Batch of 2 targets.
Target 1
Amino acid sequence: MNFDYDLIVIGAGSGGVRSARIAAGYGKKVVIFESSEVGGTCVIRGCVPKKLLVYASSFVKTFKSAKAFGWDFPSPKFSWEKLIANKDDEINRLNKIYLSLLSNSGVELVEHHASFIDKNTVVANGKEYTAERILIATGSTPFFPEIKGIEHAVSSNEALSLPTLPKEITVMGAGYIAVEFACIFNSLGVKVNLVYRGDKILRGFDDEVRSFAEEAYIKNGMNIILNSNIIEMKKLSGQYELLLDSDICLKNQDVVLCATGRIANTQNLGLENLNVNLKYNGQIEVDSEQNCGPNSVFAVGDVCNSDNLTPVAIKEGNLLMDRWYDKSNQYIEYGYLPSTVFSQPEIGSCGYTEEQAQEHFGDVKVFTSRFRAMKYAMTDIQDQTFMKLIVQKETDLVVGCHIVGVDAGEMIQGFAVAIKQGISKENLNKCIGIHPTSAEELVTMK
Ligand code: NDP
């Protein structure tokens, strides 16, 4: 059959753009569809703008500690409006870079929503497009539970661009997005109430890490309300009143941020016209070839993956294009996927938690360390760093590494490389530390 294109990509986020560019680089005729801004969640309303806000809020501790290092200056003043305007400029700049990356690589961009007619055809803005292969890279979107008055809540999308800095905010949930935003606002002097249905925040992380982080957030002034669900939200003269099933009532909330997870963007894609299976959580089911069922339809990234991580989407797309168009036989390996919660303090994590390791490997050796980072030694800041290594007893392999503290994200990346390559504790001990750093602790744990 003759098709208009070799490849249609639906969704110009991290996974879609990378796939389209790589395919075009192999000389393929590619068109990409995007109904919002090119760049997707990560660049436009996720990782990148969030990290800029994290940087902004982290200055507070820097200012606080600077005096101990001999600096003197008048009280610093903060403008949320200026921060948001500068952040928007930066995101616009990145959006333009993404646009030029696409056009420079010869990818055609159609700025409309596309939906399937059949396994080789999509329709967008009334026009039909055909391709030998179609890649779904439509990402995910915030999920709001059914709660009376939930329409008054904002998601992380809006929290990144609030018109003014609120005085008091309630954050619902205690996963990545909830704690990252709670910490940003908390550091900026906003009173933060974090409402979580469970008995300890950050489910899925190592138990000691969860306790350590929770304690640190509370020390930093956050009000964490556990074992509670919001059952009703009321708008009262521009503010919100929240009723919790634990009989607590939170009054005069300026903003309520719902951070209760994300769902795959599969709506209005015309998937009913294809034989595609959805998982229990609404994500598209794919096999190891990223195939969705019909032999011409594939998916990468959040739309089919529970690890909602940009580098995962990029890797899945890139390797798929290499296999199709460059005869590669490389597949993504999901094991020992590192991640960082950009909370304050940060949490860097790779591999098994102690609980998972015990269940998976049986006997494990656990090494932990708690200390005050040198950066704070001369200051009033009492923040501690926590590090934990989990080692399989039988093989001596390091199977888990968890860090809570300053620069945890930067540290975990390097250790994740070693762990992925199968480093043993003995070999880790042979490495020479860099003194004085926090990271050296990880090669000297006894
Ligand atoms: P998470 O799944 O991490 O957290 C969702 C939170 O909401 C959990 O605390 C969950 O509770 C709670 N929750 C879910 N449903 C309800 C409900 N009906 N009522 C009350 N609470 C509820 O999702 P996020 O939205 O924080 O993040 C989505 C994904 O995005 C992450 O899994 C991660 O992969 C990715 N991400 C990664 C980041 C990074 O790498 N730095 C940053 C941001 C996002 P419970 O624990 O009980 O289920």
Note: The mean pLDDT is 97.
Target 2
Amino acid sequence: MDTQTTQASAAPPVIRREDYKAPLWQVPQIALEFDLDPAATLVKARLTVTRAGSHDRPLRLDGDGLTPRAVSVDGKALSAGDWRMDDGVLIIALPGDDHVVETEVEIVPASNTQLMGLYASGGLLCTQCEPEGFRRITFFPDRPDVLSRYDVTMRADKAAYPVLLANGDPIEQGDLADGRHRARWVDPFPKPSYLFAMVAGNLACNADSFTTMSGREVKLGIWVAENDLPRTGHAMKALKDSMAWDERTYGREYDLDVFNIVAVADFNFGAMENKGLNIFNSRYVLADPETATDPDYDAIESVVAHEYFHNWSGDRVTCRDWFQLSLKEGFTVYRDQSFSADMGSPAVKRIEDVRVLRAAQFQEDAGPLAHPIRPESYMEISNFYTATVYNKGAEVIRMMALLLGPERFRKGTDLYFARHDGQAVTCEDFVKAMEDGGDIDLSQFRLWYSQAGTPRVTVRPSYDPESGALTLAMRQTIPATPGQDVKQPMAIPVKFALFDPATGEKHDGEEVLLLTEAQMETRREGFAQAPVLSINRGFAAPVIIEAEQSAQDLAFLAAHDDDPFSRYEAMQQLMIHALLGSIAGGPLDSAAVIDSIRGTIADAALDRSFVAEAVRLPSEAYLGDQMQVVDPDAIHAARDALQREIGVALQKEWRAIHAECARNGFSLSADARAARKLRGVALNYIVASDAEDGPALAFDQFDRADNMTERQAALAILASGASGERAQALAAFYDRYAGNALVVDKWFQTQALSLHPDVVEMVEALGQHPDFTLSNPNRARALYAAFAANQWGFNSKDGKGYRMVADAIIALDKLNPQTAARLVPPLGRWRRFDDERGAMMKAELERIAATPNLSKDVLEQATKSLA
Ligand code: TRP
Ligand code: ZN
């Protein structure tokens, strides 16, 4: 077969933001009836449609894989000539302006491996509609600017599906003949189809309640398999904390009488904010000390908050079209980040968020898939649920909050919610509300929505001893990105402070300066000696700072900066300088790094959780990002050597910390969690020092731990070594948790991430393990997404890593295109590596792109990655 022609003829259309047109028909009301059965579910839909404006265009109802069994208008069955199908779309010419259109289809949840639409997971039937899954359930104008009131009736076998849930409020339920039963749910809030949800199954409920600020009682339910019920407490606490926080912080009250969360084992993403019925990947619901790590607990808290916050930023005010995705996602990520900061340590939360941004978003912004937070075009919108739209989008909101200050920012959000409640709006509407409510001009700031690429800000301080003045010369450049060769200067908040090197004190507080030109200079006076510059404090702007800072200045900031992010950053920079110097062929100059680490662990005033962050070396991948051409082997060797030197030089300190941080009895207190984190870092350095008893010490921690945080940390350390304890620990871990899917995922993931010379062969073997399956996205990601993030292993010189991931993409695409497409970007980094590696990566992308019958999800990612 000639694949070239096949693909050319099937080339999916490109959707452009500029082509947006308002809907020609609205659907104020929809009644749905489901006769649920995994093998054949009957879906009857009754749409009240109204013509929008005056035109003579027919009604177009999106469908994906649907065949109409019956179509009627105003109660009269249509004959075949009265409607037609065009590429899945059902087209009906309607004479008047108001009609009732009824359709009937049959769908097969059991064979829905894409996990979009109505599908089976374990014994459950559940839905995922965002972004375009509703059209796999019934014919409908499946776009976010069509808002409808939903009236949903579910019928199912009562023994197999005793619980029937949908959006809104439960209205009636009752038994039917043949062991079936029914439930009817009505959602009073008009919503777009992507927020529709429904779940049927045998579920147990953690039931609780929350009294809102106006005194209404809301029934809360977290629905899981009966034996998971003891693992739902943390999610419930997070939900109640989120509800109270959104009232306190944004004045947002919950609006229905019930709020339900359901956990499902097979899910393409983290979770989904369906109105009144959030559906979660079970990994973001279930936790107990034996099976979940402290980072798992944190992730549950933030994802529960994220989905809850969407009730206002997403559901009550939704997106006009999918190009506006960051309207809800960037804002909601900003909201969940602020919530988590308030619930724990703001300093550590900021460090973690910046680490994620740099690891995922900066890489995306620097590669072939770079796009603005408001993209201009797409082939498949599912490919745009990205770190750029989510995390850079959150940074853009954060900058507006900084420029406005807390009070005016709140005025802006109040105005946004008041002005647009019940509407489907744009990013422009959000910025306008910030301008009007916050009384600020954001004209130039809007470039953050349209220009892709991470700005580089060069800051050159020069001190004149004569006048005692410091001049800061600043320059911004924004690199070219696909489709955007030339960029305009952006409005970049530069947050800085100056320190007196003699006293360690800060001069005159900190300042926020708005860099609006390509080049700008600013002058400050009155310094007896050259001050030390602390720049981009708190990581106020999502940019790369290029400041020529001496090792001495960095060491000073690592010891004295009162902005915890900048203090952390100074240590990272010291480590990076040492490592890049040795990678470039110089000696490994570890002295300054070791001194700073020694000073940091000795500083009793510092939060131990911060200390754990600050003394850890940057990841191999982040080091790669600092190089012109990534050399995975050199990076690994240098980082390994520095880790060893730090381990040896501070052996006594690490041993002391490891002993002191041991606790009797488990607690989730901040102190206990910090101790566990720092203990893991200490153990890592002890083992890295090649101390003879290192592996035994790690195995002992692994074996005696009363919690997953310490057990998993020890396992990861052993997995990256060659000791006899490695195999022993992996086998013991598997035996202990066999059957617990979320923990078995950790077992796969820990091995895929391990820095072991044979990791490629190990991952290859794990792909054949009886517990491995591509049909569960968590399991597929635990092995292949983790491995693709393992810079040393994935980029092994023989190209085996590339081939393995490409094989996985091709195989997974047949089952689940969305999840397959998310594995493509690591291969798209081919320009970042040497010619041999680059050629092998490219060859794999070409092989993927040439695969017959590829989904548009993978096709878009593979072809763009090659361009
Ligand atoms: N709106 C969801 C969130 O961010 C994202 C999401 C859930 C999603 N499921 C999805 C995106 C499936 C694409 C496909 O909270
Ligand atoms: Zn979201």
Note: The first helix runs from residue 3 to 10.
